[in-house]
Amino acid sequence: MIKLSAGTAKVLGLKELKMDVPPTTGYLLLGEKCLYNCGFCSQARESKARPNLLSRVLWPEYPGEQVFALLDKAYRDGGLKRACLQAVHGGTNDYVNLKETIVKIKDNTGLPLCVSAKVNTSGEVGALLESGADKVCIALDAVTPEIYRKVKGGGFEQRLLLLKECAQVFLGRMSTHLIVGLGETEEEMIRVIQDMVDLGVIIGLFAFTPVKGTGMAGFCPPDLSHYRRVQIAAYLIKGGHCRLEELVFHHGRLAGVSLAKPDLHELLAEGDAFRTMGCPDCNRPFYNEKPGGIIYNYPRPLTVDEAREAIRQSGLMG
Ligand code: SF4
Fold first, then answer.
1. pLDDT per position as a tens digit, 103-140
2. Which of 10, 32, 145, 146 is the most buried (most CB within 10 A)?
3. Three-state DSSP class for 116?
4. pTM of the predicted protein model
5. How far does residue 277's CA lie from ligand 1's centre (Å)?
C-alpha cells in the first residue's frame, strides 16, 4: 500500500475532490509515524495529528500496483510530469522497502522521481539514485544550528555537511527543503539559499504551516510580507540576477536590492518569483495554503493583478 496526496489521488481518478489547481507532480508517501520528532511535522513521533496528514494535506492509501499503473497513465496523458516520494523514517526495514518502491516506480512508470528520505551517508544517497531516483532531497528545513536543534532536535552542521558532500558527488541531483517562519531572520534564510544555489542544490521553499496536534501547533505562520521578500531574494539569486552580497539588510530584514527599480520591476512583473519553488514541475497546490486563504506559493501562473499585489506585499518597491 502507498499513500497519495488527496490532489494526486484526484488526478489519478481515485478520489472525488473539488480542486482549483491540479498537482503537476504526483506526491507519494511511504510509511507512518517517524522515529524523529520535528515540531512542525504531523508524522513526528509525538505528534497527535491525524496519521493520514502531512502538513495540511490528507493522504489516503491505495494498493501500490494500482497506483503505479495510474501514475504511468497520467504521465502519458500529460497530467503528471514528475513523482515525489516522501519516506517517513521508520528504521532499516523501511529503508529496504523504500529502495524496492523506487525500483517499482521506475519499472512501471516513465516519471522522473525525486525521493525525500532520512539518509545518513552519501553511500545511502547513491543507493537511492542507483535504484532509480532522479533526485534525492536532504531536508534541512531550518537554517541555523539553534533553530534546527529546537525544532528538529539534532545536528544542523552534520546535515549540512552531508548535503554539501552529496552535492559535490552527485552534481545537480540533490535538493533540500527550507521552511520560512521557524524563527530565523530573512538574512539567515537568504544566506542559506545563496549557499544552496552555489552548491547546485534545488530548493523547495515552504512557509511554516501550523498543524493541529503537532509540537508547533500554537505557532504562527510567517508574515506574508516576510515570505514575499524571501521569495524575491530566492528568485533573484537562483536566476543569477544578484548575489547575497548585493542585498541590503536592516536588522536581519531584507531592505533593498542593488538593482535599478525598473529592472527589478521587470524581473518581478510576471510573478514567477511567487510561484512554488522546488524541483521542476513541483507545484504542491494547497500544501501551505487553505483554499480561499493566503497564497504563499502560487501553484499556477499569476494574473497581472496578483503579481502586482505580491510585489506590493513585499514592501520592497516603496
Ligand atoms: S521540491 Fe517538490 S518534488 Fe522536489 S522533493 Fe520537494 S516536494 Fe518533492
1. 999 999 999 999 999 999 999 999 999 999 999 999 99
2. 10
3. strand
4. 0.96
5. 9
